[in-house]
C-alpha cells in the first residue's frame, strides 16, 4: 500500500463563458493505510479531485505522488489504483466470482486461480456463498460488496471510492458503513472516499477533507472538524442539526461577552482570547444548549414553533427576535411542547469574524478549566 500526496493541484474545464475552476490549488497528504473522506456539497470539486488522483482527469497544473512516485502523467491503467464508482457497474451475464475476478482475467490469470482468489475475497467481504449467483439475483448491498470485492482482488496501491452508497437506503447504508470499515481494517488499504453525506464522513474517516468551491476548507479528524471548525462554512456543513449563527458585537476584545445585534441580549461565551474583532458571528450548536420553560423571557430564547421527535431526543425550533434557532433536548428530562416560551443557555460558543467568516475563537463546555479554552 502507499501514501498519496497531492501538491497544488488545479483543474479547469473550458466553457463558453471562460474557464471553470473545479479544483483550486489543493494540497494534502493521505498517509499509508489511512481512511480519508472528501466531503462537501454538490459541485464543490470532490469527485473531480478523486478522478484526478485516479488518472481519469488530467490536472491543469500541480502534481500527484503515490508512494514517492509521481504519477501525474501516468495513465490510469498503470497507476494500480482501484476505483469504485457511484453506479454499481457489474456484468449481468457473469457470475459473482467472474465479476470479482475480472481484473485478473484481463491480466491473463487462469480460471481456476481466479476462482480461488475470488473465493478468498468473497469470504473477506462475507459473500462467499454467493459466488455462483448472478448480479440480478443479489440485493443492492450484496451488489455493492461485489463491486468492492472486484477492487480488492488486485491488491492495489490504494482504493478510491466515489459515493458508492448513494443509491442504498438508510438502513443498508449503515450496515455497509460497518462492513466497509471492517474490510478496510482487514485489507489494511489506503482509502479515499468521496461523499456528500456528513454522517458517512464522520463515521468512516480517520481524517476528513471538507471542500467548498474547489478548495479545502479544513483537513482533520472528525472530532477536530466538528469541535474546532475553521470557518462558518465548515461549522454549518458539519453537524446535525445545523449550528445556530447570530450576528453580534463584542463588548471588549476578549470575546468574553457578546451582544446579539438588534437585541438586548448579553451572552457570556466562556471565551477569553485577545484580539477578537468588534463585529462577529456568534455560533452555538443545538446540542450545546440547556433549555428551560419560563414565564417571562429575559435573554436568548423565544416561543417553540415546532417540536421534532428523533428517538429519545426532541429538536426544538424556536422563534426569537432575530429569527429561528434550534436546540436539542432529552425528551424525558426536558418535556417541552409547542407554544412554550423557553430560555436558552449556551454551554459552548464559537466566534467567527463577521467579515471573513474565519473562526476567531471558541470555548469548551461550560465548567471546564480556563486553560482548556482554545483560541482558533
UniProtKB/TrEMBL annotation:
InterPro entries: AAA+_ATPase, ABC_transporter-like_ATP-bd, ABC_transporter-like_CS, ABC_transpr_MalK/UgpC-like, Mo/tungstate-bd_C_term_dom, NA-bd_OB-fold, P-loop_NTPase, Transp-assoc_OB_typ2. The keyword Nucleus does not apply. It holds the Pfam family TOBE_2. One of its GO terms (cellular component) is ATP-binding cassette (ABC) transporter complex, substrate-binding subunit-containing. Residues 4-238 form the ABC transporter domain. It is found in: Cell membrane. Its EC number is 7.5.2.13. Its main location: membrane. Belongs to the ABC transporter superfamily. Carbohydrate uptake transporter-1 (CUT1) (TC 3.A.1.1) family. The complex is composed of two ATP-binding proteins (XacJ and XacK), two transmembrane proteins (XacH and XacI) and a solute-binding protein (XacG). This is ABC-type D-xylose/L-arabinose transporter. The lineage of its organism: Archaea, Methanobacteriati, Methanobacteriota, Stenosarchaea group, Halobacteria.
